[in-house]
């Protein structure tokens, strides 16, 4: 059990389990996977374009299009999430695009995500400032997100996810817009924070260097269908 930043009450993290998950589309089997991801472990999913990597993350996050046929279950710390709506799964999700809200300041983006049990403007502001400081963005609270570099945006997106007190992380190619040096720096930051927070993490990537840096198991999906 771990206490995550951004929440006053301890958030229970534990193993993330994909139990006999199969996903199909229009009568065609897309993927089948069973895996248990330990707290702080990063499981990397690789596979050809169209093999269903993002679809698997959508299933795990609870936002899979109903057009897909699904069987199997997803559990966190033994609790079945399969029927739990996306907004109550406490999944922290990072996409290729950091998707910062353009109408909010950098700090506003973080404050917006802080768990609701942190009360009071002052306390929320202090948490947001600390989150920015932690990733080398002290003093950036009032900045317009559009004025940030790609790497700075990626760090704000990461902290925005972490202050929301997630129980697990879903990473959909979050480094692929970054150049090589920044990519290496950012993935080290993301993986070290995932480990420190004890979050089970699923990483989808095309880049074997990402998988290597993640340091965990790698599952290749969809190879049979594509061969
Ligand atoms: N909402 C949807 N409705 C119908 N088909 C979809 C939908 N979303 C995705 N698909 C199809 O499902 C399959 C898997 O798509 P998915 O995006 O999961 O692949 P991927 O492995 O993440 O690909 P890439 O590496 O290119 O991102 C593809 O054939 C895609 O066209």
From TrEMBL:
<dbReference type="InterPro" id="IPR003593">
    <property type="entry name" value="AAA+_ATPase"/>
</dbReference>
<feature type="domain" description="ABC transporter">
    <location>
        <begin position="11"/>
        <end position="227"/>
    </location>
</feature>
<protein>
    <submittedName>
        <fullName>ATP-binding cassette domain-containing protein</fullName>
    </submittedName>
</protein>
<keyword id="KW-0813">Transport</keyword>
<dbReference type="Pfam" id="PF00005">
    <property type="entry name" value="ABC_tran"/>
</dbReference>
<dbReference type="GO" id="GO:0005524">
    <property type="term" value="F:ATP binding"/>
</dbReference>
<dbReference type="GO" id="GO:0016887">
    <property type="term" value="F:ATP hydrolysis activity"/>
</dbReference>
<keyword id="KW-0547">Nucleotide-binding</keyword>
<dbReference type="InterPro" id="IPR003439">
    <property type="entry name" value="ABC_transporter-like_ATP-bd"/>
</dbReference>
<dbReference type="InterPro" id="IPR050093">
    <property type="entry name" value="ABC_SmlMolc_Importer"/>
</dbReference>
<dbReference type="InterPro" id="IPR027417">
    <property type="entry name" value="P-loop_NTPase"/>
</dbReference>
<keyword id="KW-0067">ATP-binding</keyword>
């Amino acid at each position: 059990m771990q206490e995550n930043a951004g929440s006053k009450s301890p958030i229970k993290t534990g193993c993330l389990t994909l139990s006999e998950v199969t996903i199909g589309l229009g009568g065609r089997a897309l993927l089948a996977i069973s895996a248990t991801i330990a707290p702080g472990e990063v499981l990397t999913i690789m596979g050809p374009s169209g093999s269903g990597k993002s679809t698997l993350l959508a299933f795990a996050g609870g936002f899979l299009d109903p057009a897909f046929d699904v069987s199997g279950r997803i559990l966190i710390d033994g609790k079945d999430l399969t029927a739990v709506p996306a907004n109550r799964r406490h999944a922290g999700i990072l996409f290729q695009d950091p998707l910062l809200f353009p109408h909010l300041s950098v700090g506003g983006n973080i404050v917006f995500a802080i768990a609701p049990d942190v009360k009071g403007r002052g306390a929320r502001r202090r948490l947001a400032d600390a989150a920015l400081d932690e990733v080398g963005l002290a003093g950036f609270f009032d900045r317009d997100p559009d004025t940030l570099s790609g790497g700075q945006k990626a760090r704000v997106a990461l902290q925005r996810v972490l202050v929301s007190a997630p129980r697990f992380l879903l990473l959909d190619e979050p480094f692929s817009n970054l150049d090589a040096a920044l990519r290496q720096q950012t993935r080290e930051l993301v993986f070290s924070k995932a480990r420190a927070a004890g979050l089970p993490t699923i990483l989808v990537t095309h880049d074997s260097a990402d998988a290597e840096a993640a340091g965990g198991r790698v599952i290749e999906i969809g190879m049979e269908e594509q061969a």
